[in-house]
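Database export, one record per block. Field names are fixed; values are copied verbatim from the stored entry.
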Amino acid sequence: MSMIYPSIDDLVKRVDSKYTLVIAAAKRARQILDGSPIMVETDSTKDVTIALEEVSQGKLEYEKTKEGIK
C-alpha cells in the first residue's frame, strides 16, 4: 500500500470541497503543462502532483464564480 502525498484530508482543508480541489488542480496542471512557472520545490515531474503540492503549501489561490473557477 502506498501513501498519497499530499493527503486528500490535508488538501480539502485548503479548499471548500473535493470538487473545487479537482477543478483547481486540473486547471493549474494545464497551466504548468503550458509553461507556467512552478511555485514549489518538488521532485515530481507530474503536473497534477505538482499542482496538488502547490495547493497543499497554500501557493494556489482560486476564485469561485457562478460560471466556475477562474
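Remark 1: Strands lie at 64-65, 68-69.
Remark 2: The chain has one domain: 8-69.
End of record.
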